[in-house]
Design a protein that fits this description.
373 residues; mainly beta; Hemopexin; 3 helices; 4% helix; globular
């Protein structure tokens, strides 16, 4: 069995990203986190899944892929063992329900949609939620549908919140779809590939949605109240703002790409958020009282066959985390191999082929009380 928990390597020095840390943020440590190659049942690494979400599910983890993944990875949920980063023998393909065949969104959702983020219903682990991001390539909706879904507050083709339900035959049925609406005052802007990338449930069925950037190039977090009547409608679901002390940046792109909810032993509530470009984790106080803590992270990839100068782990140039899952007092992370820069990670020849196949890694680290002080 491989050991997963990463360690702490002392005090933070330089910020390891483009741009600079906002002066209001607290940074006092750099995390060193070891990753393990996610493996198929046949002993091969997971090939180009373009991982876009991670969530605790039953006794393990579950992930999904976006539209740029290899075809065999798309439109399905896959389980991962926390013990050895091994993919489950059974995966869970998605199928559109008969009731949605005439939906305004049916054509898009069945034609390799860009699925992002993943969360499990807090009351029923057979039910999952994902969102869509880039639909700029999609065929236009009918004129009647376009008129019905005007004014998304963001992109021309609205972001969709999608409900999935696991069936007894391991099929995941797409049962409901609602478009998400932002108000004009939120200034989200029209950025088809920089939309919602993170979902997490908090208390009382509050769903938090993390968006990569708004018109001012700042990451944002919104909320929806998902009550019992939520899926009785296919009209817009309007997100709400609430008070958070998120960092703001003067320049550059600093998106957030994954998050999960965490409650401290004394019942304080936080979101643990991954900022992909910056290789950092954000600790966001949901009470809005504390400034967001930014934790720089150094990621390391395992070397499965060691040689002189290439033993155990090698430092990564870029990991690009897109999935975050809290399991008890451990934070689990999965990366989305960023095709434009992933080969910059190649240092040791043993890992070259894995990087060339855009294989992801599973990382974990212990959640520390000092992050919330």
């Amino acid at each position: 069995m491989r050991t997963f928990l990463g360690g702490i390597i002392g005090m933070c020095g330089l910020f390891v990203s483009c741009g600079k840390i906002p002066e209001t943020a607290t940074v006092d440590q750099t995390l060193q986190v070891n990753g393990h190659w996610i493996m198929e049942q046949n002993g091969q690494v997971m090939r180009n899944p373009q991982s876009s979400g991670l969530v605790k599910w039953r006794d393990g983890l579950m992930t999904l892929s976006d539209r740029s993944a290899d075809p065999e990875q798309r439109l399905r949920l896959r389980t991962i063992s926390k013990d050895d980063a091994l993919l489950g023998a059974i995966d869970f393909p998605m199928i559109l329900s008969e009731e949605l065949q005439s939906s305004c969104f049916a054509a898009y959702i069945t034609d390799n949609p860009d699925l992002e983020a993943l969360t499990v219903d807090p009351e029923d682990d057979r039910i999952f939620y994902v969102v869509t991001e880039d639909a700029s390539y999609a065929d236009p909706m009918s004129e009647a549908c376009q008129q019905k879904y005007l004014d998304s507050g963001s992109t021309n083709y609205p972001t969709l919140l999608v409900r999935l339900e696991l069936q007894t035959n391991n099929i995941v049925l797409i049962t409901h779809i609602r478009p998400i609406q932002f108000s004009a005052s939120m200034q989200i802007g029209d950025f088809p590939n920089d939309g919602v990338e993170a979902l997490a449930f908090g208390q009382d069925r509050t769903l938090y949605l993390g968006i990569e950037k708004d018109s001012n190039k700042q990451a944002r977090i919104f909320s929806l109240q998902m009550n019992n009547e939520f899926w009785h409608s296919d009209e817009y679901a309007a997100v709400k703002t609430f008070a958070l002390k998120l960092p703001t940046f003067e320049s550059g792109n600093h998106p957030i790409n994954g998050m999960d909810y965490y409650q401290t032993p004394d019942n304080r509530e936080f979101l643990l958020v991954a900022a992909r470009n910056d290789e950092t984790l954000w600790v966001v106080d949901l009470s809005g009282q504390k400034e967001t803590v930014i934790l720089p992270v150094d990621f390391f990839a395992e070397i499965q066959t060691s040689s002189e100068g290439c033993e155990n782990y090698e430092a990564m140039d870029n990991a690009s985390i897109e999935g975050v899952a809290v399991v008890d007092e451990t934070l689990w992370l999965i990366n989305d191999p960023w095709k434009a820069v992933y080969l910059n990670n190649v240092k040791c020849s043993q890992n070259r082929e894995n990087y060339q196949m855009f294989a992801p890694l599973l990382f974990s680290l212990p959640i520390q009380s000092k992050w919330f002080d």
